């Protein structure tokens, strides 16, 4: 884009055209989100200010960001943040980018969390493999009587999660611990939640470049059959659950039966299964059977 006499609408049209030529999946949407984010504009301001002339500095920032998107870097990674369940969450190379499908886990966990709080007056959450802190922080925002411990194997991810807690005013009820699943834990929780790595290792190479090259591999690789994390969670959860505690996990679209079997084999009962916005199996919620305690 030339640095002379370019309006906001022209910059949008140029970005959209370049994305379309490069076969970006949503060229118009990506152009709008990217440029609005770069310039700090709302969707309304983007339309209302369409005739505004852009400065050379603004054009330079847009050009650099467009080039990054043409290399398949996701829009929200370029912007360094993403909205999730009403929160504004910073991203880093160490964190999975939280996606709308994970909001289904938060939505389905909320009624159970509210019920626990109504009975006990409070609730303690464990978010395994927290990344940005998205799941725990979304639930803390909705439930002021809840506290959370968020774990991850990445110290860098935990630093991002703590920053997100601080930025969203939730740091006083949010703690972090570097741990591989349950390794360093010693207390019990009312609810254990996780969006673990669940991609079958052999298909990772076939993932879209937006995912394969920019999400951390540790957050994607679920092992030979994609179920390694679920085995660890199902086998370890009981020792860290309060009576009538609940476990909730996000799953791959074809994993509902196999993941359910892993938990049932450990004495859990399926409370609920939920689909994502595309109609795919996405969330499972379990409770420990009292008869096995």
TrEMBL record:
Keywords assigned by UniProt, alphabetized: Methyltransferase, S-adenosyl-L-methionine, Transferase
PROSITE patterns, A to Z: N6_MTASE (PS00092)
InterPro entries: DNA_methylase_N6_adenine_CS, HemK-like, N5-glutamine_MTase, PrmC_N, RF_methyltr_PrmC, SAM-dependent_MTases_sf, Small_mtfrase_dom
A molecular function (GO) term: peptide chain release factor N(5)-glutamine methyltransferase activity
EC number annotated for this UniProt entry: 2.1.1.297
Binding site for substrate: 195-198
Domain Methyltransferase small residues, every copy: 113-200
GO biological process, one term: methylation
Catalytic activity reported: L-glutaminyl-[peptide chain release factor] + S-adenosyl-L-methionine = N(5)-methyl-L-glutaminyl-[peptide chain release factor] + S-adenosyl-L-homocysteine + H(+)
Pfam families reported in the protein's UniProt record: MTS, PrmC_N
Binding site for S-adenosyl-L-methionine: 129-133, 152, 181, 195
All residue ranges annotated as the Release factor glutamine methyltransferase N-terminal domain in the record: 10-80
HAMAP family linked to this entry: RF_methyltr_PrmC
Protein function: Methylates the class 1 translation termination release factors RF1/PrfA and RF2/PrfB on the glutamine residue of the universally conserved GGQ motif.
Family: Belongs to the protein N5-glutamine methyltransferase family. PrmC subfamily.
Name under which the protein is recorded: Release factor glutamine methyltransferase
């Amino acid at each position: 884009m030339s640095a002379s006499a370019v309006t906001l609408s022209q910059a949008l049209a140029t970005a959209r055209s370049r994305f379309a030529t490069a076969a970006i999946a949503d060229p118009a949407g990506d152009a709008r989100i990217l440029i609005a984010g770069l310039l700090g504009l709302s969707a309304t301001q983007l339309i209302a200010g369409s005739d505004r002339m852009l400065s050379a500095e603004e054009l330079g920032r847009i050009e650099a960001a467009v080039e990054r998107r043409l290399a398949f870097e996701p829009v929200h990674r370029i912007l360094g943040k993403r909205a999730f369940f009403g929160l504004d969450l910073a991203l880093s190379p160490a964190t999975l980018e939280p996606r709308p499908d994970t909001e289904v886990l938060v939505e389905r966990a909320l009624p159970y969390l509210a019920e626990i709080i109504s009975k006990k007056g409070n609730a303690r959450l464990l978010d395994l493999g927290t990344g940005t802190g998205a799941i725990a922080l979304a639930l803390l925002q909705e439930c002021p009587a809840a506290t959370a411990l968020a774990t991850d194997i990445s110290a860098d991810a935990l630093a991002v999660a703590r920053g997100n807690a601080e930025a969203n005013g939730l740091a006083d009820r949010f703690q972090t611990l570097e741990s591989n699943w349950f390794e360093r834990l010693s207390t019990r929780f009312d609810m254990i939640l996780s969006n673990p790595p669940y991609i079958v290792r052999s298909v990772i190479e076939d993932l879209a470049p937006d995912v394969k090259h920019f999400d951390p591999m540790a957050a994607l690789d679920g092992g030979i059959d994609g179920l390694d994390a679920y085995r660890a969670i199902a086998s370890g959860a009981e020792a860290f659950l309060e009576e009538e505690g609940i476990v909730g996990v996000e799953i791959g679209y074809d994993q509902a039966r196999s993941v359910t079997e892993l938990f049932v084999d450990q004495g859990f009962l399926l409370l609920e299964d939920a689909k994502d916005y595309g109609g795919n199996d996405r969330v499972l919620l379990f409770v420990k059977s009292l008869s096995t305690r």
